[in-house]
Design brief:
Elements: E1 4-6, H1 7-14, H2 18-26, H3 28-35, E2 42-44, E3 53-56, H4 57-64
Antiparallel strand pairs: 1-3, 2-3
Helix pairs in contact: 1-2
């Protein structure tokens, strides 16, 4: 299992829409508040030319109130 999740995978775990997660990443202030610093809770997918975000699995599980599997 990868250390990083896609926005869609995170949305499934958090039981919200992928659009909701994507919106939380779009605004720099909200992104810092909800997901922390780049490299800690989120990152831009390597080699992405479209600014695709990935979220750290441990951070998503913490937000969902679940222990990391």
């Amino acid at each position: 299992m990868s250390e990083w999740m896609t926005v869609r995978e995170a949305a499934q775990v958090l039981e919200v829409s992928a659009r909701t997660v994507q919106r939380s990443l779009a605004d720099p202030e909200q992104r810092a508040r909800e997901w922390g610093d780049e490299g800690q809770g989120w990152r831009t997918k390597p080699l992405s030319t479209r600014g695709v975000y990935q979220l750290r699995r441990a951070e998503v599980m913490r937000k969902a109130g679940r222990p990391e599997a």
